[in-house]
């Protein structure tokens, strides 16, 4: 069995170190760690030898909400707050050394194929193995250049999520104080705290873009900074004067990509003795001029079109759009196509202060929760699967859906489809109210489920936005539950699954 963390939990210094110490041997030891990073809820660990990872014990470790395999990387779901404290503790144990490449085929063969799982093995462990096999198969099938590009685009924005969340909550607090006419002297200060990052987000996007695509990060940031420089209003492109911030994150992304290409071209051709002078100069000059006289204008038109399209979508067809978006989001996540939405969310937040798409897409998680609850009720004699659902449900309510998806609904098959049905009805409800004028948006990306409540913003105030979003969650829960209870499990599946374990005396 995996060692348990001490009783003081992950909040204190001892607790953080104990969680990292417990994870270390299960990941193959310090020598097996190639990189350790974290996003808002997940610990992202790249290992040199995937076969050395003790996956079963890792999933069973207290505090681990789920484990998702992503090529040579493991995404260990620890939840918000905890992961930010555990990641640096685990990184301290890393040993320097080159990471070995691992092919998608190696990862796929490492996982237990779904066909190898015996028909009678319907415990939570068997479902987890099926889920891991499905994800590995999808990962290998989806390893196309286009999806790899989308994954790298997503990696540009993931490090920005904590700042987006913090600034979004501060902006909401400033708006609340202004609406209630409380502490009038403090509201402008809070607005400044919330708006400073957003006014310079293009610089951070440019920096991360160059870093992700192999350029010098500060050069990517320098070129992207042109977009937010106040003096661009003296430049005319295509017969129009430019405005500071025109093009936003899309322009910054394109400018930094161009800067990276120019820099790498120079590195191959400029003599080493002149490289330190020539390469940065040419990179900033060429990429900067193209940004001013082309990219800012084009990206500005694209960003404006995105904003207008989102507004028209909800105003004229919010119900249908919500049904489609809420119902298809989970399959999009499986295919990796959801990453294309991240720049769109960021563009809407920069333009309008919030993204109206995220609350609709969050309904997919509500459908998943409802489906898992129905499976819990139907499998009254399978204590193993019910225990998995109970342990993963708090994370699901907070919008962390992987443990329920890959541990329950996707391995079972039909419950995944009925979870999408629940998400579709929840999305349709939020879209319908948006069509009627009660729009609700999120001031940041990243959180979902209940964790999205502090980031909500609406056209009729925070109270209405919370009510609309909360009602949408309830519709998603209910629709996912009813669809799964009625159609998610066949009679044969129920007999097989309920034969997987004896009913406990407590009913679990």
Salient structural properties:
508 residues; alpha+beta; Gyrase A, domain 2; 3 domains; two-stranded antiparallel sheet; 6% strand; globular; disordered N terminus; kinase; phosphotransferase system; transferase; PTS_EIIC; Glu_permease_IIB
Number of DSSP strand runs: 8
What are the secondary-structure elements, in order, as H or E? HEEHEEHHHHHHHHEEHHHHHHHHEEHH
Low-confidence stretches: 1-14, 97-121, 502-508
Query: If you average the pLDDT, what whole number results?
Result: 82
Give the overall silhouette.
globular
Tally of discrete structural domains: 3
Helix proportion: 55-70%
Strand content: 5-15%
Span between termini = 23 Å
InterPro entries: Glu_permease_IIB, PTrfase_EIIB_Cys, PTS_EIIC, PTS_EIIC_1, PTS_IIB_1, PTS_Sugar-Specific_Components
Pfam family, one: PTS_EIIB
Keywords: Cell membrane, Kinase, Membrane, Phosphotransferase system, Sugar transport, Transferase, Transmembrane, Transmembrane helix, Transport
Main location: membrane
């Amino acid at each position: 069995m995996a060692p348990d963390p001490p009783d003081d939990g992950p909040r204190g210094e001892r607790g953080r170190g104990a969680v990292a110490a417990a994870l270390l041997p299960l990941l193959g030891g310090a020598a097996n760690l190639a990189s350790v990073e974290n996003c808002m809820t997940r610990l992202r660990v790249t290992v040199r030898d995937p076969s050395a990872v003790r996956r079963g014990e890792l999933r069973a470790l207290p505090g681990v909400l789920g484990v998702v395999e992503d090529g040579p990387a493991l995404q260990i779901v620890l939840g918000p707050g905890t992961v930010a404290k555990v990641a640096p503790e685990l990184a301290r144990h890393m040993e320097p050394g080159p990471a070995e490449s691992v092919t998608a085929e190696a990862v796929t063969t490492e996982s237990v194929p779904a066909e190898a799982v015996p028909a009678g093995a319907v415990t939570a462990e068997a479902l987890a193995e099926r889920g891991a096999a499905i994800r590995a198969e999808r990962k290998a099938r989806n390893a196309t250049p286009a999806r790899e590009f989308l994954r790298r685009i997503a990696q540009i924005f993931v490090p920005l999520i904590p700042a987006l969340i913090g600034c979004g909550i501060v902006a909401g607090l400033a708006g609340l104080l202004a609406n209630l006419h409380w502490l009038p002297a403090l509201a402008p200060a809070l607005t400044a705290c919330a708006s400073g990052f957003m006014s310079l987000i293009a610089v951070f996007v440019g920096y991360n873009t160059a870093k992700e695509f192999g350029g010098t990060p500060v050069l990517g940031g320098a070129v992207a900074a042109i977009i937010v420089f106040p003096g661009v209003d003296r430049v005319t492109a295509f017969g129009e004067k430019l405005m500071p911030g025109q093009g936003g994150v899309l322009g910054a992304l394109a400018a930094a990509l161009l800067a990276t290409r120019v820099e790498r071209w120079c590195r191959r051709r400029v003599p080493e003795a002149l490289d330190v002078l020539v390469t940065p100069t040419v990179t900033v000059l060429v990429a900067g001029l193209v940004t001013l006289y082309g990219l800012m204008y084009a990206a500005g038109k694209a960003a404006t079109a995105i904003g207008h399209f989102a507004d028209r979508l909800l105003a004229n067809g919010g119900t249908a759009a919500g049904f489609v978006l809420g119902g298809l989001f989970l399959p999009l996540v499986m295919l990796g196509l959801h990453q294309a939405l991240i720049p769109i969310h960021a563009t809407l937040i920069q333009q309008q202060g919030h993204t109206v798409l995220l609350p609709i897409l969050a309904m997919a998680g509500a459908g998943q929760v409802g489906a898992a609850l129905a499976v819990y009720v139907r499998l009254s004699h399978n204590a193993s699967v019910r225990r998995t659902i109970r342990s993963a449900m708090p994370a699901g309510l907070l919008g962390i859906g992987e443990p329920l998806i890959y541990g329950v609904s996707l391995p079972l098959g039909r419950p995944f489809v009925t979870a999408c049905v629940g998400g579709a009805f929840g999305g349709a409800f939020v879209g319908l109210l948006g069509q009627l004028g009660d729009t609700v948006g999120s001031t940041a990306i990243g959180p979902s489920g209940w964790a999205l409540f502090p980031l909500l913003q609406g056209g009729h105030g925070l109270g209405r936005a919370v009510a609309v979003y909360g009602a949408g969650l309830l519709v998603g829960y209910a629709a996912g539950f009813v669809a799964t209870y009625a159609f998610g499990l066949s009679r044969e599946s129920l007999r097989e699954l309920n034969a997987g374990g004896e009913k406990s005396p407590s009913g679990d």
